[in-house]
TrEMBL record:
This is Uncharacterized protein. Keywords: Membrane, Transmembrane, Transmembrane helix. The lineage of its organism: Bacteria, Pseudomonadati, Pseudomonadota, Gammaproteobacteria, Alteromonadales. The keyword Glycosyltransferase does not apply. The keyword Transmembrane helix applies. Residues 161-185 are annotated as: Disordered. Coiled coil: none annotated.
Amino acid sequence: MKHKSHWLSYILAFLPAVFVAGVLGSVIQTQFNILSISSIGPSLAYQERLAATWHDLLNFAPFFMIVVAVAFIVALPVAHIVVRIQRRQFTAWCAAACAISLWVAFLAADHFAPMPTLIAATRTNMGTFFMILSGLAGGFVYAVLSRIFRRRLIKKIRAQQRAAESKAEKKPATATNHKTESTSE
């Protein structure tokens, strides 16, 4: 029962973590692209920035969430192993593992992609740093949510067990009371 609640809490925390990292990374990617465009020409108006950000949220974010999910699938079990050995700093290890895994994913994508960089924001060190921060944020969200979900699921499971135990204790008592009443008549 204990492991079931842990796995469920990890899965429930994984999806929002990937979503947060994907959305944040998409916004960062858009703003770095706009910054690059603005450096060679006129700056973009606020409405154009919003339109470009919205466009990337619809078109780039789903792709980036796949990259994030694959990176996190590798990173989070490693973080859990380290935490089992060290027995502390769960949040820090999850955040660091997710950030590092995203950096490795960028390096691997840039190595295997036919173009110089697959994700434009990672062309510069500053862009790579900010994109990695989206992984750090996703790891933080995962760590916090997995703890919250695990505690709530454990409480729910314990409450169900107590209810089942009290139901089991009441059932035999009512059955014996019924038998004694029928024999006394």
